[in-house]
Amino acid sequence: MEGRSVVRFLRTRREATVLAMLVIVFLGLTFASEFFLTGRNLSNVARQISVVGIVALGQALVIIAGGIDLSVGSVIGLAAVTAAMVSAATGMPSLGIVGAIAIGMAVGFLNGVLVTRIRINPFITTLGTLSIARGAALLATNGNPQRFDNWAAWLGYGRIGEVPVQFLLLVALTLVVAFFATRTRWGRNVYAVGDNARAARLAGIDVARTRIMVFTLSGSLAGLGGLLLGGMLTNSNPNLGLGYELDVIAAVILGGVALSGGRGSIGGVVIGAALMGLLRNAFVLLNVSGYWQTITIGLVVILAVGADSLNRRREDD
Amino acid sequence: MEGRSVVRFLRTRREATVLAMLVIVFLGLTFASEFFLTGRNLSNVARQISVVGIVALGQALVIIAGGIDLSVGSVIGLAAVTAAMVSAATGMPSLGIVGAIAIGMAVGFLNGVLVTRIRINPFITTLGTLSIARGAALLATNGNPQRFDNWAAWLGYGRIGEVPVQFLLLVALTLVVAFFATRTRWGRNVYAVGDNARAARLAGIDVARTRIMVFTLSGSLAGLGGLLLGGMLTNSNPNLGLGYELDVIAAVILGGVALSGGRGSIGGVVIGAALMGLLRNAFVLLNVSGYWQTITIGLVVILAVGADSLNRRREDD
Amino acid sequence: AAEVPLPDAAKALGATVAAEGPSEKPLRLAVLSFQGSSFWEAADKGIAAATDYLKPLNTTVDYIQLGTGLTAETIVAGIDGALTKQYDGIATVPIFDGTVAKVNEAVAAGVPFVAFIADSAERSNRTVGMGQLAYDAGKTAGAFIAKQLGGKGKIAVITGYLGAAQHDARMNGALDYLKAEHPDITIVGPFECKDDDATAYSQATDAMTSNPDLSVIYVTAGGSEAAAKAVRDAGQTGKVGVVGYDDLPEKQQYKDGGEILALLDQAPGRQTFESLVMLHNILAFGKEYPADIPVAAPLALGKNAKP
Amino acid sequence: MTALLSVRGIEKSFDRNRVLTGIDLDIAAGEVVALLGENGAGKSTFVNILSGALGRDAGRVVFAGAETVFSTTREAIDAGIIHIHQELSLIGSLSVMENLFIGDYRTGRSGIIDRKALAAASRPLLERVGAGHIDPRRTAGELSTAEQQLVEIAKALSRNARLLILDEPTASLTPHEAAALFAVVRELKSRGVAVIFISHRLEEVFQIADRVVVLRDGGVVSDRPVAATSREAIIADMTGRAFALGAMPPAIVPEGAPLRLAAEAIGDGAGIGPISFELRAGEILGVFGLVGAGRTELLEMLCGKRAIKSGAIRLASGAAPASPTAAWRSGLALLPEGRKTNGILPNLSVEENIVVARRQAGGGLVARGSERALADRLWRTLGIVAAGPGQPIRSLSGGNQQKALFARCLAADPSILLLDEPTHGVDVRTKGDIYRTVRDLAGEGLAVVFVSSELPEILALASTVMVLAHGRRTLYAPRAGLGENDVLSAAFVEAA
Ligand SMILES: Nc1ncnc2c1ncn2[C@@H]1O[C@H](COP(=O)(O)OP(=O)(O)OP(=O)(O)O)[C@@H](O)[C@H]1O
Ligand SMILES: Nc1ncnc2c1ncn2[C@@H]1O[C@H](COP(=O)(O)OP(=O)(O)OP(=O)(O)O)[C@@H](O)[C@H]1O
Ligand SMILES: O[C@@H]1[C@@H](O)[C@@H](O)CO[C@H]1O
Ligand SMILES: [Mg+2]
Ligand SMILES: [Mg+2]
């Protein structure tokens, strides 16, 4: 990119504002804490970003397609216990991995079918499956945490050198999903469907299939998220992921995806997740008081998006 | 209404499906539990519906205007502690009432200004103020519940005969808000803005003012909700209202308000809140235990909206 | 070394463990705890007292606040941060099983680790674990309830979060005991209130309505004062009593009023204070403590309790 | 006579795109000024500035003797400037009567709506625009496009207009309804209301305007009394060169051309059909009818969007499509009516909008290079005016959006082209381009169904004409040998 287009990028893209914000927080932390720029801490941050980031990739596609997926938090919990229980029952960790992703895929597919075939609003559909998936996780385990300590769990806790495996997965998946979104027909169709579903359909796009696909993807990635979270803790609690949906959606929107559909980039989403993770790390490093943490998170979310809005006034409405 | 138009109403309006569902649950409970149709229980149900119902009235207007207000749960907590602390500090319960509603109003107004002037997406804005308001409530109280036991609290715990004062407030506010929405200039403008903000602006409607107004109203009603909840418990916990936003939004959508804005009725919203309240009552009356409660709530939400969707296929996309 | 006398603030919390003396080299301790309720506020008092007490003894205590959301990931991230910042010792409330691996990692790295209030259900290698044994506390509650009922009657159970180990253990400790020892006691519920006062209030109210013969409401976590308020509002004071946890100031009026029969207290301030002092003694003097320090579950009785 | 409106040096740019470079214009009370120009000339931009919907970069506006800077449409409306926008702007969820009095609903200071009074005040307005059959309590969203347009015009009457701006008001009206509109305009004119009238139908200009103002390259290139100009002169001013649409030779279906599609008594079970026809390679089937006749529904059945409940469709290329997706795959391309709601993908680039349908038939990977080349070629062929292929299509002028949608159809290389009002909002030159393109494609063997409300267009282009009325086929005959009257009388057949 030449100089001019860098400036243009910064002026026109929401993810640029968040990237700027990320850089500021990063520099601030470098000066504020001697421990921030240690390999160990960066590795912690990388791990803390990963699950939210991975789940946000799928959520981003759903939102770009004009939907929303509130069920991801519960799917994380359900997949985590599925991974642990399937591994334990079969003695085969690989089946645990398959199970976690498959159960997420199934919930996502169900969401997609309810939204497109029965035509239930996505917010309502996934609010419903949020409850159902959590209930199922509790029912399956009787509320008991499940030991999950095998090579499948290694995906969650393992490191290669200093780098968490989770983070490598995030990086790889980001590349794959970004490629999917920008360079494949199905990915471009996701944007078209979210932008104007009616026009997309008349232009020959199978809208229902596109929507089912993104929900299924989002569910699968949430399933993977559950596997990683359970693995990281070497313990799958049915309550894992409780409330994650709001964090994930915040990351997606921080990253520049429009809640109204049709707009947003995958790279931005990961930047959004990184900003949220960095803040949480800052709280611990700088001993920020509990109540101020809550307030700060709120302020940053508003600031990041607000700075961007002031920068570029919308032309519409 | 004549026979024909009753049928038309039932076939065409989402609130009719939910009303039918409500009637079914009501009848079912009448047979299933001897205690259901006692004055005492109905009075309990009426009280349990009230706060969610009142807060949902404001939320409905926000959603009809094309926005969303995630901050209501936190505003409930903030307003509850404000009521208690202001009453205690000034010795004047009336000032406690004013304080609760005023703080809700202030958060709502802030939401409105951020959404319209800084043009931050409502989801993000209110996700931010959700954090900030909760943090403020915790900060003000240091996490400690505040004794709130004076005549202002009576609004929350009092009954007139068997009827909870809360419920009378819900009924009165429903009538007022319904009248506002259907019969006043400002109310109709709310629908216009939510349906097509650009067209509304071109027709000379002050879109920003309309939006600020609905957010302010929603905040004020959430403030009142906090006052009532704190009063009911004669104890204002800064954590009151945690997670209420999802319940309130579910009630609004169950009641037939379209998340895309422009459509919905106020009466429907109260029916939606009543259905949620009745279900919760049913769980205890019928001793439905633990995990099944979670699953049932999810199923009912999907069923109520799904039955309606199947009934009337959407014409779009 | 001579014990350093405890300050009044610590005595008020019921603390008995004293420092063996000042440390030779400067020590840095990290304590990680949550915020958001009067329970954690009470725990904070112990932290503040220990911070003041240990400062002249060459030990600094840094308080890493974990915020208001109790999750395993938050605790793990907090411990990770503390390890990064190379503290000499760590004290926290590792309430979830998901923390086991991280605690073991800290101990393996040579950082003594003290758990207070609630340990994970699965045992970690933590240096010391102090706190109530939740299942046993539940059993104590069950025995108390049985005594109140004279072995016969009906109780309703309101639990905090289903799947939260501590809440489940308190619930099961009581229920297993009652089912085994007192089959004539009928159990209604459990109902999940998610630590929300308003929900607990409604559930208590509905439970009394649909069970006119109800005598006790057992609340395993947040919401006991709301349940007590429901009893008062329903005019059932003296007929229905609440048994719950944590003897906190806002519950006093219901003990006095007779709605609360008993609260099992955990003395959170004492636990945090003693955890930090033990860490100091371990690091500065190589003092050894038992790996498990059970904290008794004393019953703070209300007016209407049968002793 | 002093001017009611006096405009000097209006300038406007979007980013680096200079759209208006200094407009001067005077309009007197009671004068009807036609504002003409090619797609993207800046007509809508200019009138949006007058009515406060857009800000200006430079220039002065004096209205009714006072210098004005409207920052909101409300101020303009209060001053008496009423603007009917190019895109329909009714509020679908409000009733017709609420739309007529939108914003204050005749509530006065109380703010409380008197529904009876509102309905009573609405009826005469609807009658004046020839829409007396519409119940003012109906929800506006349920009305057909044309009915909505009429309500839109009635809306202008509800306000005390001193200057009425009509931006392509007749685009979705039949000649009959347009005539009713012109009657209203004349009545307003006689009461001293000034009117700015934008249209791409030049014959209308001669019917109604006093003066003709032509915009090109962001400035006024000519301003003449209507009597002192001609169709040719206007076109020359608009395009910057002499230009003639030139009579095209009549189209004829080539002898023995292969059958591409046959509709056998198809109906949707909801008032449309049974309709039968055949379509051969190289044939242009012009479908005429009044608004509401069911032409759009017919196309929807052909492309698989609307279920066929009776009868059957046979396609040379395979089975009848069950969905638009299948339709495009079997070589049917559809240019839908209503470019904003059914056509454009607003936030996507012009290029993506052009290639989207074609892409569905390709592989999984997006072939960027060939897509760009194709979009570039069509872009040039159709003369789309925009900053570049990467510009979001929503910021193109209406006519240019329509051209991009036409390009979308061509990009898919179809064997059958279904066009629903393809020249809506398209300027004369482009209309000519589209006609020629359609003819050329037909010459290469493409089969075309061309739905239009403009009779001259049907007659000039079609090789076969079909007329629908009330969902039934009332005429189906080769173009040769048909006169205007044959077609019109078939369109006006009463319901059975
Ligand atoms: N919001 C916008 N952002 C960027 N460019 C715009 C915007 N609105 C209009 N333009 C550009 O300004 C130019 C003039 O557009 P305008 O809509 O005024 O044309 P018009 O004369 O009304 O054309 P038509 O006959 O097609 O309606 C076009 O090139 C268009 O792309
Ligand atoms: N959304 C709608 N709700 C109810 N009726 C509708 C709707 N859309 C169209 N109709 C009705 O369907 C019939 C035919 O529709 P339509 O106006 O699309 O026909 P058409 O011949 O294509 O006319 P044109 O395309 O010129 O508007 C009309 O009677 C119209 O009122
Ligand atoms: O009693 C519990 C404590 O043990 C701790 O879990 C915090 O919440 C309280 O309700
Ligand atoms: Mg225009
Ligand atoms: Mg049509």
UniProtKB/TrEMBL annotation, chains A, B:
A GO MF term: transmembrane transporter activity
Cellular component GO terms held in the UniProt record: plasma membrane
Its membrane topology: Multi-pass membrane protein
Keywords of the record: Cell inner membrane, Cell membrane, Membrane, Transmembrane, Transmembrane helix, Transport
UniProt entry tagged with the keyword Cell inner membrane: yes
Subcellular location: Cell membrane
Transmembrane segments: 48-65, 95-116, 123-143, 163-181, 212-234, 291-310
Top-level division of the source organism's lineage: Bacteria
InterPro entries (alphabetical): ABC_transp_permease (IPR001851)
UniProt keyword Membrane present: yes
Main location class: membrane
Any Pfam family the entry gives: BPD_transp_2
Primary role: Part of the ABC transporter complex LsrABCD involved in autoinducer 2 (AI-2) import. Probably responsible for the translocation of the substrate across the membrane.
PANTHER family per UniProt: ABC TRANSPORTER PERMEASE PROTEIN YPHD-RELATED-RELATED, AUTOINDUCER 2 IMPORT SYSTEM PERMEASE PROTEIN LSRD
Record's subunit section: The complex is composed of two ATP-binding proteins (LsrA), two transmembrane proteins (LsrC and LsrD) and a solute-binding protein (LsrB).
Protein known as: Autoinducer 2 import system permease protein LsrD
Organism, as annotated: Prosthecomicrobium pneumaticum
TrEMBL record, chain D:
Pfam families: ABC_tran (PF00005)
Residues in ABC transporter domain copies: 5-242, 257-495
Gene3D superfamilies: P-loop containing nucleotide triphosphate hydrolases (3.40.50.300)
Membrane topology reported for the UniProt record: Peripheral membrane protein
UniProt main location, coarse: membrane
Record-linked SMART domains: AAA
InterPro entries attached to this UniProt entry: AAA+_ATPase, ABC_carbohydrate_import_ATPase, ABC_transporter-like_ATP-bd, ABC_transporter-like_CS, P-loop_NTPase
GO CC annotations, alphabetized: plasma membrane
GO terms, molecular function: ATP binding; ATP hydrolysis activity
Record keywords: ATP-binding, Cell membrane, Membrane, Nucleotide-binding, Repeat, Sugar transport, Translocase, Transport
Localization per Swiss-Prot or TrEMBL: Cell membrane
Family: Belongs to the ABC transporter superfamily.
Name by which UniProt lists this protein: ABC-type sugar transport system ATPase subunit
Organism: Prosthecomicrobium pneumaticum
